[in-house]
């Protein structure tokens, strides 16, 4: 196994909270049992190929700042180098999953045929490295937003040929994900939205998007791919309005088009905040509707209105996220994918390790804190008690569908006034959480 790109970094190990070694885990101990399962199985960390091995630090105001040592030679040489970099990195970090777009792993050729050939060659190499290491895709996806052909969108393009091109590309991307033993496949609607309503037939575009997803479902079953399909909500950027706005909008769309049995949600922290929600809200909404599939673990900057894709470091957020995930029964096919890149001023390959170690430790602590709170029933006992009026009497009758407006009118006319309300105790609960975040 090659040791070419991170020669100064050894295997990252768990050294415990007292360790002063920046290249060690202080909290993430993959084999430590939490609620009857090793941490590694709870968290199912994944490295994002695009951010870690393709992102040179360019932003809308400036060019790349990082000279990544694997970016050298022809486009196909670079693709091969990236495979080596990815597997060396994941192996040393101790992460079993990676996520990729088709165009992150292999370059476009002059025709779709040539592009598919490039992809096949690199997929062969990925499969070999997977065989040697046991590392595999958490999910695959297709890049339907970078090339100028997708300027009006892909499945929602006004150009039917672009829809057809996107269909061919996604068919191939699902096949490749299947070949690599991927656990899932994600649809992020890169440019599925609009810049201006003045030139947009919204109803027609939404119908087309649904048709596209139905075709993908059909193809998935045809080739025998058992992985989970996900849709990834995001409200804006690059378009001013993305159709997959948030978890609720996606759920409504999937229900309207009878797709909710086939797709779940891949919830991203930074997309939640862009939608004006917090991460906890999006996770809770998804879980409440049995739609929580996987998570893109990152963080935005609340003072910047865009998808900064920073690494998660906020313990309050990771604790509440793990609360939602544990209450929903944990991940099955999904996991925590670091859809995040190091900042533009972090230019050394070792920074990738610091970033991931921090994110993994932040989620490990979130997991332990959430689990301790669950064991003590900190929030759940209070919430249960808060709804106690629904467990018997009129509340139970309403939930069981035994009464209507007529019965309830009679009941209240008799009684006169409802039972007095109890305090919501928000501050007490906030304090309780802080007692556990140590
Ligand atoms: C972009 C999305 C993207 C998806 C995969 O904002 O987060 O990275 O996760 O296409
Ligand atoms: Ni994402
Ligand atoms: Ni994003």
Largest sheet: 8 strands, parallel
Number of strands: 12
Q: What is the overall shape?
A: globular
* Beta-strand residue percentage: 5-15%
CATH class of the largest domain reads: Alpha Beta
Q: Helix-strand pattern, N to C?
A: EEHEHHEHHEHEEHEEHEHHEHEHHHHH
Instruction: Enter the CATH topology name of the largest domain.
Output: TIM Barrel
Which hetero compounds are present in the coordinates?
D-xylose, nickel (II) ion
Q: Can you give the helix content as a percent range?
A: 40-55%
The DSSP helix count reads 16
**How are the strands ordered across the major sheet?**
5-4-3-12-11-10-8-6
CATH architecture of the largest domain: Alpha-Beta Barrel
Overall structural class, as computed from helix and strand content, comes to alpha/beta
List the domain count as a whole number. 2
Query: Whole-Å distance between the termini?
Result: 40 Å
Give an account of the 3D structure:
The protein is α/β, with parallel strands linked by helices. The chain folds into two domains: 33-376, Divalent-metal-dependent TIM barrel enzymes (TIM Barrel, Alpha-Beta Barrel); 381-436, no CATH class. It is built from 16 helices and twelve strands. The chain has helices at residues 39-43, 49-54, 75-93, 102-105, 112-133, 160-179, 202-223, 247-256, 269-274, 279-288, 315-327, 349-375, 380-386, 393-399, 405-415, 426-436, and strands spanning 33-34, 37-38, 45-48, 97-101, 136-141, 184-187, 193-194, 228-231, 241-242, 263-268, 292-296, 336-338. The protein has an eight-stranded parallel β-sheet. Strand 1 (33-34) and strand 2 form a beta hairpin. Bound molecules: D-xylose and nickel (II) ion (NI) (2 copies). One nickel (II) ion is lined by residues 188, 232, 268, 296, 339.
């Amino acid at each position: 196994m090659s040791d070419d790109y991170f020669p100064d970094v050894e295997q990252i190990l768990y050294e415990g909270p007292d360790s002063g070694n920046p290249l060690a885990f202080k909290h993430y101990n993959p084999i430590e049992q939490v609620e009857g399962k090793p941490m590694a199985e709870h968290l199912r960390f994944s490295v994002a190929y695009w951010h870690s091995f393709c992102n040179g630090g360019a932003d809308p105001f400036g060019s790349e700042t990082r000279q990544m040592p694997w970016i050298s030679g022809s486009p196909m040489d670079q693709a091969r180098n990236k495979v080596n970099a990815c597997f060396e990195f994941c192996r040393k970090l101790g992460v079993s999953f990676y996520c990729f777009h088709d165009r992150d792993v292999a370059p476009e050729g002059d025709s779709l045929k040539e592009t598919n050939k490039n992809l096949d060659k690199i997929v062969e190499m990925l499969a070999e490295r997977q065989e040697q290491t046991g590392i595999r895709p958490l999910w695959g996806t297709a890049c339907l937003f970078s090339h100028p052909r997708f300027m009006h969108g892909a499945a929602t393009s006004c150009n039917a040929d672009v829809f057809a091109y996107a269909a061919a590309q996604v068919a191939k991307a699902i096949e490749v994900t299947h070949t690599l033993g991927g656990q899932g496949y994600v649809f992020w609607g890169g440019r599925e939205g609009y810049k201006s309503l003045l030139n947009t037939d919204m109803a027609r575009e939404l119908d087309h998007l649904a048709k596209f997803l139905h075709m993908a479902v059909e193809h998935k079953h045809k080739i025998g791919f058992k992985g989970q399909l996900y849709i990834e909500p995001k409200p804006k950027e690059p378009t001013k309005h993305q159709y997959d706005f948030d978890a609720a909008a996606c759920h409504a769309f999937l229900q309207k088009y009878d797709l909710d049995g086939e797709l779940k949600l891949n919830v991203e922290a930074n997309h939640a905040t862009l939608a004006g929600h917090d991460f906890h809200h999006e996770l809770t909404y998804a879980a409440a509707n049995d739609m929580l599939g996987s998570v893109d673990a990152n963080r935005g900057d609340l003072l910047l209105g865009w998808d900064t894709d920073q690494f998660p470091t906020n313990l309050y957020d990771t604790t509440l996220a793990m609360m939602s995930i544990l209450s929903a029964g944990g991940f099955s096919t999904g996991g925590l994918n670091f859809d995040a890149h190091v900042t533009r001023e972090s230019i050394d390959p070792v920074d990738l390790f610091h970033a991931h170690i921090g994110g993994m430790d932040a989620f490990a602590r979130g997991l332990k804190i959430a689990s301790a709170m669950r064991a003590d029933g900190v929030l759940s006992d209070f919430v249960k008690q808060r709804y106690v009026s629904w467990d018997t009497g009129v509340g139970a009758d309403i939930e069981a569908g035994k009464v209507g407006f007529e019965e309830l009118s009679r009941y209240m006319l008799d009684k006169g006034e409802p039972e007095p309300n109890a305090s919501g105790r928000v501050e007490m609960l906030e304090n309780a959480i802080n007692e556990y975040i140590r």
